[in-house]
Amino acid sequence: MKNFFSRVTQHRTSRNKTSTTAQIPFRMNFLFIIVGLLFAALIAQLAYLQILHGTQLKAEVSRTDSTVETNNVQRGMIFDSTGRVLVGNKTHQAISYTKGVNVMAPDMYRTANRLGKYLKVPTDSLTRRNRADYFLASSSREKQVDSNIPGIKNAAQSDVNNKELQYLYAHPAAFKLSKQQKNDAMIYARMSGAYSLSTTYIKETGVTGKELAEVGEHLGELPGVKVGTSWTRDYPYGSSLKSILGTVSSEKIGLPDNKVNQYLAQGYSRNDSVGQSYLEQQYEPVLRGSKSQTDVEVSGTKIMKEVKRYGGQKGDNLQLTINAGFQKKLQSLVRQAEGGAGGVSTGTYAVVMNPNNGNIIGMAGVDRNPSTQKITNNALGAINNSITMGSVVKGAMVSGALMDGVITPENSTLTDMPITVGGTKKASWFNKNGGANMAVNASTALEVSSNSYMMQLAMKEAGFHYHEGAALNMNPNIFNKLRGYFNQFGLGVKTGIDLPGETTGLAGSSSRAHLGNALDEAYGNYDAYTTIQVAQYMSTIANGGYRIQPHILSSIRGTSKNGGLGAVKDSVTPTVLNHIDMTSAQRKMVTEGLYDVVHGTNTWKTGGELDTIKPEISAKTGTAQTFYKGTETVTLSLASYAPSTHPQVVVALAMPNLDYNAEDNNMKLAKSIYQAYWDTVQSTSTLKSGTSSSNSSNVQQTAQPQQ
């Protein structure tokens, strides 16, 4: 039995070995078959691609992308009324960088380091983030940083950079940069700020001849780097008008954050220079010009070919109504007047305007800090500083009363006397105690600047019958009535001047508790107005009753072949905002009163010091009792026009918070301004002849009512 089982076992073993040996060739043959089939499929696919689509794929491999690169052009210039340059462009040699397509941080890092060998840039604005980004742009340094951050290998790619920055900020000693590296980091930061195929300046100004030569010599190893030109704003007549002209952002600052989306939608790049304030901002679409366009062919990260499609066009120019020579003198005169003011004077402001078309010929101003005595130029103070002007507004007060019908040209006589209501006495400057009571009509009231007359007009307009000591029981609506007439002349409303930032002035409370202030309102000692409003008000009287919108822009013009003013593309047409509904007899009462302020015969006339000005002027002086930080002060103002017949120019000025005993600072300044005007702007030989003191304006022919 044992032998039997042994033979059976041997037989089974022998059969299993034979079966296994037989399976090996079968499996190998099967694998060979599979591999063969795969090779066949691969060969078939290659044949399919090469034979049927070879041409297409070859073109795809060698394909280049075409795109358009844009570059900035010179900004339009700003000229004065005579064609002199107020704001020009100063050309500088510059080094720029155009970022290619698919350019990565390591590419820019290498270029920045190479360029840094030949170019030195200011590094004062290099930020901590700039330094960190430059440090991490080196792959070896980035690996070194990553080795110190636990778990960074498993972090999402979006979190890696944040973790790296956090580490560097926590270990500032780990990424200290040498002076040369800081220079290179600044270059890298400017390159990084560029978009694909956009151009940014690496160094706009101050490029030395040596730097130009060395960079130019190595341009082949500096992809994207170019030698070109840049422009910065230049002010040949100084910076006294800069607050009006405005400023332009630098390429480094680029678009303002609060308008970035608006500008991007208009085709700007983030690093473009734009007007930041006033005229530069107001007329940005005109001044910016149109960018040049270059067709660029790109293969991979390399720019293969550049062909200029459109050379761009310089921005159009602005010609202003301002006369630069006169403006310079005006600013100097205003500054001199403020310099001699002393005390707690807070500034001086002046506007010179053509009453017939709204042209601003000059606008000047200075602020003064009474604590430090420091004086700073601020021409814009003429449109945004609200000042209690005093009696200068009485021409509007008399006009309103005439239009309201409480007085007429035939019956306007009242007695100047102290006014006592509710236990409070108010009086004219020359008749404080009633010793100089006298009968005055509307014209004489302007000549002597009667406060009493104006208060009586206000009470009449309110329907209040005055008697000495009576309680002032008027309807508070009197405030609205008085202000309504003042507004028609431009007092207490925006004039519409083409500069941002104009204010409306300040109106005091009109509640019943402040009813007594309605009398102060009548003679200009309550509400506050701007100097430009006073100029518009006096222009409205001077031109026969047309409130014209003042403006600084005269025209938009192209550029001539020699770079000067070119053809007129658009011009400003004077705009009449409203017309004062007064008869010629009513207007004559007002204009005669303003003439008599200077040339009248009454002992108490207020502007006699101005009668030496030639040609003759008409005017209204103003004095307001004011306070500055508890100190009693006086504010002097003046509104005037010349010549008294056929007015050509209006001068308005304000001098707030002078010493209380100041008397004629306003008239001294006005005399100097008129002298400068006739010497600089207009010859008296161009004036029309005439002897009447009433105006006959040609504004109807030069302006159209606003629709």
TrEMBL record:
Cross-referenced Pfam families: PBP_dimer, Transpeptidase
Cellular compartment(s): Cell membrane
Presence of keyword Membrane: yes
GO biological process: cell wall organization; peptidoglycan biosynthetic process; regulation of cell shape
Gene: ftsI_1
Organism the protein comes from: Secundilactobacillus silagei JCM 19001
Family stated for the protein in its record: Belongs to the transpeptidase family.
Swiss-Prot/TrEMBL keywords: Cell membrane, Cell shape, Cell wall biogenesis/degradation, Membrane, Peptidoglycan synthesis, Transmembrane, Transmembrane helix
Residue stretches making up the Penicillin-binding protein dimerisation domain: 72-299
Ranges for domain Penicillin-binding protein transpeptidase: 349-673
Topology class, membrane: Single-pass membrane protein
Matches recorded under Gene3D superfamilies: DD-peptidase/beta-lactamase superfamily, Penicillin-binding protein 2a (Domain 2), Penicillin-binding protein, N-terminal non-catalytic domain, head sub-domain
Region (Disordered), start-end ranges: 685-707
Any one GO molecular-function label of the UniProt entry: peptidoglycan L,D-transpeptidase activity
InterPro entries tied to this protein: Beta-lactam/transpept, Beta-lactam/transpept-like, PBP_dimer, PBP_dimer_sf, PCN-bd_Tpept
Name of the featured protein: Penicillin-binding protein 2B
Single GO cellular component term: plasma membrane
